[in-house]
Design brief:
- It is a single chain.
- The protein has 22 helices and 7 strands.
- It is mainly alpha-helical.
- It has a 3-stranded antiparallel sheet, with no helix packed on it.
- Strand 1 and strand 2 form a beta hairpin.
Length: about 650
């Protein structure tokens, strides 16, 4: 057993007392078995989604197991210093191997459980399924015998004991549900109640289990310093960036194209472990350094990868999902100016999306519009953005002198007032402008310089459908919003917003006009949301009030927009984009949970924010606020050392 002191409060020791060579051998055999299982049959029947009955032809979940096993094997060999693979783990950290093995284990046993539940028992497993389970278990056990970066002591946290009462309550309600005949009116209510309590009880048990595992493993969050990178020719470094974005495009496309819920859940499990393991291995920090070095190449590669998505699709089935993700992400970026930079809690932001959509619908030639005009697309976009900006100023001017919870309540009220007003402008309870609950239907497709976006387009011999056309248009709008956010965020105004967010009183004492700058943030955020709303109106053909609520099962709505900004990482560009993508896909792919969809989604959000409170892609300041003790000290050679107050 190896014991090496690294920094104060940390050590490098194994969790299980195994000889290092035995642990390496066990991990390698388990990872190889996991890979081999993907080439074997997992079930004897094709009734399970994905048809996992073939030998030598991986499908669906088998591809995920294959990826997890291969990643574990590569990182293991790289951590052992095998020539030709050292680039995969510059830090030589076995924690990266453990994270990869954990992801493979989660995918394996989730797949086994899904097969057992869907088909009615473990008897439906073929030899490949048993090899999968045994191999992933061996690999995980082996990694626990490797020298890991661990803390010297972790206090065991115990949840409030009253929460554990949910377990017997769930059992009682479950038995009561089965004791009542199904034809009784109360039976459906009890069934839903039993399911909800069971999920809540399971969440409590899983959370406590997580505390127990954390107390046992004592894994450290300290990042090992990266050794000096080997100098490569510029063309090779640029090629690495292009390859990385190509792999990213493939991974995101796989997630969007998942055809059934079980595959998507396993994809999320593997994606989380892959990201964490590559971060611990040092590979992602190396790639991040390259992207900083070649910013223009990185921007071009990112845009090219995103623009290539429609060309990977054979139909518009999933391109429509990607288009709505871009709309959602663009609005989230606008909200990020208000919340992430200026620190203003806005709970009715989706109303500005609705203002832009209604304004564009009224002037785009819809037969249901009382304004019988049809503006060209650029004029409709400017109209939607301008009207949203005006509403942002009108709402912000009398309310932005409020702070904190009071401002949140006012913005929540504005969101509901907008929806109710659109309902009442129906010709009966008010002027006939929006047709009430019927909305403004039959919004014509856009025609830009003779290009009708509603008709299929042939590019490079590939036919792009209607949603592919709108996807490319929305990609340009998103790029414009990203450019605006980046330029404003790095300007003197952006720094003033950050100062107001950190301490408004201190900022005003330094000469910053807090009210004027907050009003500017509100107006700019509303303008960007209205810009996305003009495209949304044409994509959906119809604009109705129920599309712009505070909370609903599917985004966009104010609650989901705020969650996307916070979950992704406030004050960053890529954070809200990643958060919006995740928060749109998860509800969309969890539709098979039916009545328990929102409950399961809420629990998933709680777990994510508990594990990573600073967001998926945080800035340095957020990392300092949440994990100051585990972040290495800054170099003392520079007097401008990064601190919480001046990141």
């Amino acid at each position: 057993m190896t014991t090496t002191s690294t920094t104060a409060g940390t050590e490098t020791t194994p969790v299980l007392s195994l000889p290092t060579r035995a642990a390496v051998l066990l991990t390698g055999l388990g990872a190889a078995a996991t890979v081999a299982s993907a080439l074997m049959s997992w079930t004897w029947t094709d009734e399970f989604p994905g048809d996992l009955t073939y030998y030598g032809s991986p499908a669906g979940l088998q591809w995920l197991a294959l990826t997890g096993g291969l990643l574990t094997l590569v990182l293991l060999l790289a951590a052992q210093g095998v020539p030709g693979l050292r680039w995969a783990a510059p830090t030589r950290s076995n924690n990266a191997v453990l994270l990869a093995a954990t992801g493979a284990f989660a995918v394996a046993w989730f797949s086994i459980a899904a097969i057992a539940v869907d088909l009615g028992g473990l008897a439906n497993l073929e030899p490949g399924g048993w090899v999968l389970g045994a191999g992933s278990l061996l690999a995980l056990a082996g990694t626990l015998g490797l020298p890991l970066d661990r803390r010297t002591g972790v206090t065991l946290r115990v949840l409030d004991r009253r929460l554990f009462l949910l377990v017997p309550i769930a059992a009682v309600v479950w038995f009561a549900t089965h004791a009542i005949p199904e034809d009784k009116p109360v039976a459906p209510v009890l069934t839903a109640l039993a399911g909800g309590i069971a999920i809540a009880a399971a969440a409590v048990l899983l959370l406590q289990l997580g505390h127990l595992v954390n107390h046992w493993l004592r894994l450290s969050n300290t990042t090992r310093p990266l050794p000096a990178a080997r100098e490569l020719p510029s063309y090779l470094e640029i090629l690495l960036i292009v390859v990385a974005f190509g792999i990213g495009l493939f991974a995101i496309t796989f997630g969007i194209d998942t055809e059934y819920g079980e595959l998507f859940i396993a994809y999320l499990l593997l994606a989380a472990s892959v990201g964490a393991s590559l971060g611990k291995s040092g590979l992602l920090p190396r790639l991040r350094a390259l992207t900083v070095k070649y910013r223009s190449v990185t921007t071009g590669a990112a845009f090219a990868a995103a623009a290539s998505f429609p060309f990977t699709q054979t139909s518009d089935q999933y391109t429509s999902v990607a288009t709505n993700i871009l709309i959602f992400a663009t609005v989230a970026l606008g909200l990020n100016i208000v919340v992430g930079l200026a620190g203003l809690l806005d709970l009715g932001y989706v109303a500005f999306l609705g203002v832009g959509a209604y304004a564009a619908a009224l002037v785009s030639g819809s037969p249901a519009s009382p304004i019988h005009v049809q503006f060209p697309f650029w004029a409709a976009m400017l109209t939607g953005a301008a009207v949203s900006m005006v509403f942002g100023v009108l709402i912000g001017a009398p309310t932005l002198r409020l702070r904190g919870d009071y401002l949140a309540i006012v913005t929540l009220g504005f969101g509901e007032i907008f929806r109710i007003t659109m309902l009442n402008l129906n010709g009966t309870t008010g002027p006939k402008i929006t047709n009430g609950s019927n909305g403004i239907p039959r919004i014509p497709d856009l025609n830009i310089l003779g290009w009708n976006l509603g008709k299929p387009t042939n590019l490079f011999g590939i036919e792009l459908g209607r949603f592919s056309n709108y996807y490319l248009l929305m990609l340009l709008v998103t790029a414009l919003v990203v450019l605006v956010f980046a330029r404003v965020g790095n300007s003197r105004i952006g720094r003033a917003w950050v100062a107001i967010r950190e301490d408004e009183t201190a900022a005003e004492a330094m000469g910053i006009n807090g009210f004027r700058l907050k009003l500017l943030a509100f107006a700019l955020g509303a303008c960007l949301a209205g810009l996305a709303g003009t495209v949304q109106a044409h994509v959906s053909y119809t604009v109705t009030p129920d599309q712009y609520t505070f909370a609903e099962a599917l985004p966009p709505n104010s609650a989901f927009l705020l969650a996307a900004v916070i979950l992704g990482g406030m004050g960053t560009i890529s954070g809200p984009l990643a958060g919006a993508t995740l928060l749109f896909l998860v509800p969309k792919k969890l539709e098979f949970l039916s009545d328990y969809q929102l409950l399961a989604f809420g629990i998933a959000l709680i777990v994510l924010m508990r594990v990573r409170p600073e967001g998926l892609i945080p800035n340095r300041r957020s990392q300092l606020e949440f994990h100051e003790a585990s972040i290495p000290a800054q170099s003392t050679g520079d007097t401008a050392t990064l601190t919480k107050a001046g990141a």
